[in-house]
Amino acid sequence: MDQLLIILTAALAVGFYFYNSRIREAAHRAAINACKESNVQNLDGYVSLKKIYFGRNPENQLRFLKRYQFEFATTGSKRYIGHIIMQGKHPIIVEMESTEEL
């Protein structure tokens, strides 16, 4: 019985890892697309998980959200930060820091 519990726990951990990898890959694709649309360069080729939290949608239903961060640059050497909020495997908000100098 103990072996079955260990096997099920290991299988659950592996499944959770692969599910989260797919979400991270979808966030990375969203970051690349946002950078292409804004004519900026995506830097470092990855997104990093910054926050996991619950939020409410317009129908006031509770939903599980993840916030990822990525970096991008214009032709200069200054780095800017962008964020992607994911609900499951779907990006619902993509935010990018303004690149305009004041």
Question: Which helices and strands, and how do they pair?
Answer:
Layout: H1 2-38, E1 41-56, E2 62-73, E3 79-87, E4 90-96
Antiparallel strand pairs: 1-2, 2-3, 3-4
- What percent of residues are in strands? 35-45%
Taken in chain order, the helices and strands follow as HEEEE
Structural class: alpha+beta
Number of DSSP-assigned strands: 4
Morphology call: elongated
Q: Radius of gyration, Cα only, in angstroms?
A: 17 Å
* Average predicted local confidence, pLDDT: 90
Name the poorly predicted regions: none
What's the total helix number? 1
Largest sheet: 4 strands, antiparallel
Distance between the termini: 66 Å
Helix fraction bin: 25-40%
User: Main sheet: which strands, in order across?
Assistant: 1-2-3-4
Folded structure, characterized:
By secondary structure, the chain is an alpha+beta fold. Helix content is 36%, strand content 43%. A hairpin with a 2-residue loop joins strand 3 (79-87) and strand 4 (90-96). The longest helix is centred in the first third of the chain and has 37 residues, at 2-38. The radius of gyration is 17 Å and the shape is elongated. The mean pLDDT is 90.
Please sum up the structure shown.
This protein has one helix at 2-38; strands at 41-56, 62-73, 79-87, 90-96. It has 102 residues and is of the alpha+beta class. Strand 2 (62-73) and strand 3 (79-87) form a beta hairpin.
